[in-house]
Amino acid sequence: MELKQRHLQQACNQGLLTPEQVTPLWNYLQNLPADSATFRATHILFYLGGLIAIAAMSLFMTLGWDAFGGIGILLIACGYGVAACLVADWLLWRQRQPIPAGLLAALAVTMVPLAIYGLQAQLGYWDDATHTEYRDFHRYIDWRWLMMELGTLLFGTILLWRYRLPFMVMPLAVVLWYLSMDLTPFLFQEEDYSWLRRQQVSMVVGLLMLGLAFYIDLRTRHTLDFAWWLYLFGLMAFWGGLSMQHSDSELSKLGYCLINLLLITVGGMIGRRVFVIFGGMGVAGYLGYLAWDLFEDSLTFPFVLSLIGLGIIWLGLLWQRHEAQIQRQLQRHLPAAWRELLAQRR
């Protein structure tokens, strides 16, 4: 709810504030930095500009960058990173603008793998490699990226400790997701690793990321939300690896559905809708499979599938109507620290 001056006057009429407190309190709230208020149009511009800058220096790198050579790429990446940190310092400590400061600090983190790549290229590390372009880092799975990923995690953690801004977790979570894929060819011989191995490693790394997110959530329950990005990419790694597996066993498929129901339950308990989204997609996929298996080549299949979809929408409406009550019932079984965390988040 957006706070207005009439709300303070209503509180005064109810005896919660004295008439002398209304005007000074309203003036104080009006003078707070913009980022402490609700989400505004300026935030959209902040994120749009920041994400474009991050994408330009990561996803959309062109072949022309090879003309700079390894040392050139290293110097440019370091220059960008230092400049981004200096501007982030100014925005955070002088201007009290944490959102753009977090975006600039995240940009500095994305410069770390580019800098390491430039150093490796200068030392001849990529001379005999299949993937010799930096943009391949975001497109192909290769164990040679591990040094760039580990270096990014190290320097990114140091920068996160300095600035303590939640958006900085985003590039670290992305790198952890990449790490879950690139670990497979490193852990297993080239002839031994398969899609099944990749899915298994992805699931394990995803679970580790979720465990880290739970830990960070508890440790930062009195401050900002640093765990959201880890939840998102941890679920992408775990749920993606789980959903890509194939089995002819009906029991295994039922187990898949039960795991997704567990994700929905966990999401309701800890107040994280991202769990409900992934779990809901898994349950919907299982129900779609059942409909296809039971009504294959049947004229009733489209009707059955549409009824399943409408049923899921109806369940969503029920959840929305009774979400608070459901969460209260589920959260009764949580430890005291988690209940305190949820109270702080509210």
Automatic annotation (TrEMBL):
Keyword Transmembrane helix in annotation: yes
Residue spans crossing the bilayer: 44-65, 71-92, 104-123, 143-161, 168-188, 200-216, 228-245, 251-267, 274-292, 298-319
UniProt KW keywords: Membrane, Transmembrane, Transmembrane helix
Keyword Protein biosynthesis listed: no
Name of the protein: Uncharacterized protein
The species this protein was found in: Tolumonas auensis (strain DSM 9187 / NBRC 110442 / TA 4)
